[in-house]
Amino acid sequence: MSQSLDRALTLVGELATGPKTLDELSNVIEVHKSTTMRLLRTLESHRFVQREGVHHYRLGTALFDLANRALEERDVRRSAENALRELNTRTGYTVHLASYEDGEVIYIDKYDSTHPMRMYSRIGRRAPLHCTAVAKVLLCELPEPRRREVAHSIDYVPLTANTITSPEAYLAELDRVRSAGYAVDNAEHEDFIHCIAAPIRGARNEVVAAVSMSVPKVLLDFDGLLALQPDLLATARAASVECGWSPRE
Amino acid sequence: MSQSLDRALTLVGELATGPKTLDELSNVIEVHKSTTMRLLRTLESHRFVQREGVHHYRLGTALFDLANRALEERDVRRSAENALRELNTRTGYTVHLASYEDGEVIYIDKYDSTHPMRMYSRIGRRAPLHCTAVAKVLLCELPEPRRREVAHSIDYVPLTANTITSPEAYLAELDRVRSAGYAVDNAEHEDFIHCIAAPIRGARNEVVAAVSMSVPKVLLDFDGLLALQPDLLATARAASVECGWSPRE
DNA sequence: ATAGCCGTTGCATTATACGCAACGTAAGGA
DNA sequence: TCCTTACGTTGCGTATAATGCAACGGCTAT
Questions:
Q1: A95 and A123 in contact (C-beta within 8 Å)?
Q2: Which bases of chain C come closer than 7 Å to a protein CB?
Q3: Would the pTM of this model clear 0.80, i.e. be above it?
Q4: Percent residues over pLDDT 90 in chain A
Q5: Packed helices A62-73 and B3-15: angle between N→C axes, nearest 10 degrees
Q6: Contact check, Cβ <8 Å, A8/B16
Q7: What b-and-e string marks burial along A139-167, b requiring 16 or more CB atoms within 10 Å of the CB?
Q8: For the residues B154-169, what does the mean pLDDT come to?
Q9: Degrees (nearest 5) of the Cα angle B164, B166, B167?
Q10: What kind and span of H or E run contains B246?
Q11: How far is A150 from chain B (nearest CA, A)?
Q12: Are A6 and B42 a contacting pair at CB < 8 A?
């Protein structure tokens, strides 16, 4: 809509691939070099680009500033919103967003199932650590001593036949989750429901939240649940990007 | 120089302080809201901003992309150049830039002393690990096991009366450097020269390089050398910012 | 139901971004 | 040393694109 701004932003995008000269940049946006120079000067005054030597321009430090400040401003809930809603409408299953704060796993957002059979849960509610997929995801990358500490402090109340009931079994489960990249709750919390969860990561590759899908066993058997994994991981990835995460080599 | 671009960049800067409404943004750049909207739309098409709800705009994910790609493009040498040259011309002492690669500490840049008495060194040369300030800085934040490994693999050739000659003494020295935030070489390498070095950090707060000043003892006594510390740390900080580092709380 | 608040759209106007051409400067070769 | 070439830079007239205005439309709340 705004020509000069559009051109300038194109320049910035171009510079992301490496330092460029005035002429190279002029060719990209197809304008006279004097026009390019004016744009670059303005960008330079805002520290979006900076000169490198005499013949080259490169991205400036304002980008670092902005990216860092944008990260501070962002909260997972708003950032993950679109990806989670999309997953919810596409699959129709209940989607939860949970985070780990002050030693507790909390549900911070929820997208209800469109199927008639719903499950009970509530935003703000605490999730039991030993029998939910989200808790496994959120805990599995804690530093090892801290993980042991947490595992031993849990009260392993057995809720179903599948509930994990010992620190040792739980720590082994966390190891599995960490290497698999996702977690399941195979009817460990409630007899008739199973869940699958994946991590949402931030700019430092740290786990900032967990997204899960909860499905009544009557709608989908365990293999069916596992088949949701690629879809769930793609969603988690999209949400991660919104949180400042970028793929590592 | 380009009015609309200037306004747009101002908007981006403003959004860094948190999500804003159309009117708030219009007030900042003092234009009609329709003008602001056109700018925002263009910014949005490049993913520099995105809508949050219906009434708010916030910074978009392009910033993360750009910042990450800019970081990959940057190399320490070019990024630190200005800060180091400035330090060199202001103090007149020899300034070195060194990095740790493949188990070796290498001088990657050098700004010669303006004083008549110069020291011998060369870009590309390997710095001995046990008796240089830059090596201490570059090694002091390695993970503990790796640090022990390196310390025990060093050949502690005694070069002066002050040279550190045992792994134990060296590891203790690294601990001191880590907590102090800078390192010295108190004539441990050559009898008549002492150095002080500080870390240059990157976006993940990791040490990407070390900057040092080397001063002949006849020009400055040890207390004089230590008095250069604030100046050196400020320089290292400035160079760090250029490398994508941002102050942590 | 109605009023008030925003965001949005179309249009006329003129400010402004643009291309042009001349100039300046630095590097390279004869 | 001087000339050539290849850049970046500057000033200026013009046409276009950015702007402000005013009317419209979709909310929400009372």
A1: no
A2: 6-10, 15-21
A3: no
A4: 43
A5: 40
A6: no
A7: bbebeeeebeebbeebebeebeeebbbeb
A8: 93
A9: 115
A10: none
A11: 24
A12: yes
Distance from CA of B47 to the nearest CA of A (A): 10
DSSP conformation letters of B95-162: EEEEEEETTEEEEEEEE--SSS------TTPEEPSSS-HHHHHHHTTS-HHHHHHHHHH------STT
Paired strand residues for B126: B106
Interatomic CA distance for residues A11 and A29, integer angstroms: 7
Chain B residues with CB-CB distance to A46 below 8 A: 6, 9-10, 13
Buried-state track A224-241, b at ≥16 Cβ within 10 A, e below 16:
ebeebbeebbebbbbbbb
Give distance CA B213 / C1' C6 (Å).
Answer: 60
Compute the nearest-CA separation of A222 from chain B (Å).
36
Positions on chain D within 7 A of a protein C-beta:
7-11, 17-22
Contact by Cβ (8 Å): B213, B195: yes
Task: Report pLDDT digits (tens) over B42-72.
Answer: 888 888 988 887 788 888 888 888 887 777 7
B35 touches strand D (CB under 7 A): yes
- Which residues make beta-bridge pairs with A212? A96, A197
| A6–B70 CB contact, under 8 Å | no
For chain B, the domains span 3-69, 74-242
The number of C-alpha atoms within 13 Å of B153 and in the hemisphere containing its C-beta is 9
DSSP B20: B
| Candidate from A59-63, A200-204, B72-76, B152-156 with smallest mean pLDDT | B72-76
Q: Which of residues 87-126 of B touch strand D (CB under 7 A)?
A: none
The residue among B48, B207, B55 whose CA lies nearest residue B135 is: B207
* Domain B74-242 falls under CATH 3.40.50.2300: no
**CA of A70, C1' of D28: distance in angstroms:** 30
Class of CATH domain B3-69: mainly alpha
Is there contact between B32 and strand D, defined as CB under 7 Å from any strand atom?
yes
- Structure tokens given for A218: 């009557």
Tokens coding B188: 């441990």
A39 C-beta less than 7 Å away from strand C: yes
